[in-house]
């Protein structure tokens, strides 16, 4: 575990226990058993730390959803498993979700807001692929409205897990939202979110990741993981970016090797997009 990972894990525990504002750098370093100097070598400030946590969890969530949608073969189960995963994640990480919501409400950092919008756009693309796969031509004119409806369900019902301490049945919730989504898919007639409007929303937000940017992400990821099959696989994928020689089944297998490692989910997501999986 790197020093940054140690700080992030212990800081998250403290933020969950007593809140962001009430947690000091000194408390974080005490929990980690490191000096303040070591903290400031890893993060310039507590604000930079919280942004790093948000970035880490958001990339994990985005890449996990994309992987789930792209690997589930049974169309009858896809929408249910999508909703179940979303709300199970909210339930397990409700403390972090509260931090994220608070930061979004208070932040005037343009880079942070652009980054969050970029992740949101990636999520929209994943949901759109799911909608097109499940409902096909029947929702060609209304598919973007359906995507925004699904995003609305995610946001509204996630508040039950974030703001209330009452135990909730994720299975029942997922099945209920499947029914609602299927009703909307069958009965929406008048579209509001058009292709043209979506293109306006996306302008300047989603940019293709260059090979150089991918290589930079790979290098940072390699630094964060110990010697393992994941590290070896990532090294081979790095080489494939530089000099393509491997077959597609082999590249896909290497991607599967790194997908489940907690520090490889984002780079796996980016590489899947790059290689067309």
Automatic annotation (TrEMBL):
<feature type="DNA-binding region" description="H-T-H motif">
    <location>
        <begin position="24"/>
        <end position="43"/>
    </location>
</feature>
<feature type="domain" description="HTH tetR-type">
    <location>
        <begin position="1"/>
        <end position="61"/>
    </location>
</feature>
<dbReference type="InterPro" id="IPR050624">
    <property type="entry name" value="HTH-type_Tx_Regulator"/>
</dbReference>
<dbReference type="InterPro" id="IPR023772">
    <property type="entry name" value="DNA-bd_HTH_TetR-type_CS"/>
</dbReference>
<protein>
    <submittedName>
        <fullName>TetR/AcrR family transcriptional regulator</fullName>
    </submittedName>
</protein>
<dbReference type="Pfam" id="PF00440">
    <property type="entry name" value="TetR_N"/>
</dbReference>
<keyword id="KW-0238">DNA-binding</keyword>
<dbReference type="InterPro" id="IPR001647">
    <property type="entry name" value="HTH_TetR"/>
</dbReference>
<dbReference type="InterPro" id="IPR009057">
    <property type="entry name" value="Homeodomain-like_sf"/>
</dbReference>
């Amino acid at each position: 575990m790197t020093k940054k990972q140690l700080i992030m894990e212990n800081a998250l525990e403290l933020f969950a226990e007593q809140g962001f504002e009430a947690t000091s750098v000194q408390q974080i370093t005490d929990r980690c058993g490191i000096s303040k100097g070591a903290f400031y070598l890893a993060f310039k400030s507590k604000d930079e730390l919280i942004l790093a946590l948000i970035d880490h969890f958001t990339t994990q969530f985005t890449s996990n959803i994309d992987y789930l949608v792209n690997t589930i073969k049974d169309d009858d189960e896809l929408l249910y498993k999508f909703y179940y995963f979303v709300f199970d994640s909210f339930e397990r990480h409700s403390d972090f979700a509260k931090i994220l919501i608070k930061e979004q409400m208070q932040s005037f950092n343009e880079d942070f807001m652009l980054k969050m919008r970029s992740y949101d756009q990636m999520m929209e693309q994943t949901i759109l692929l799911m909608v097109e796969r499940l409902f096909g031509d029947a929702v060609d004119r209304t598919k973007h409205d359906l995507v925004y409806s699904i995003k609305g369900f995610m946001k509204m019902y996630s508040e039950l897990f974030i703001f209330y301490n009452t135990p909730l049945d994720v299975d029942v919730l997922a099945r209920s939202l499947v029914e609602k989504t299927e009703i909307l898919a069958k009965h929406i007639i008048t579209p509001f979110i058009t292709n043209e409007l979506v293109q306006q929303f996306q302008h300047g937000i989603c940019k293709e990741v260059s090979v150089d940017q991918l290589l930079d992400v790979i290098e940072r990821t390699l630094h964060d993981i110990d010697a393992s099959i994941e590290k070896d696989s990532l090294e081979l994928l790095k080489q494939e970016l530089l000099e393509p020689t491997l077959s597609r089944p082999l590249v896909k297998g290497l991607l599967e090797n790194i997908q489940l490692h907690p520090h490889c989910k984002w780079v796996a997501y980016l590489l899947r997009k790059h290689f067309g999986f």
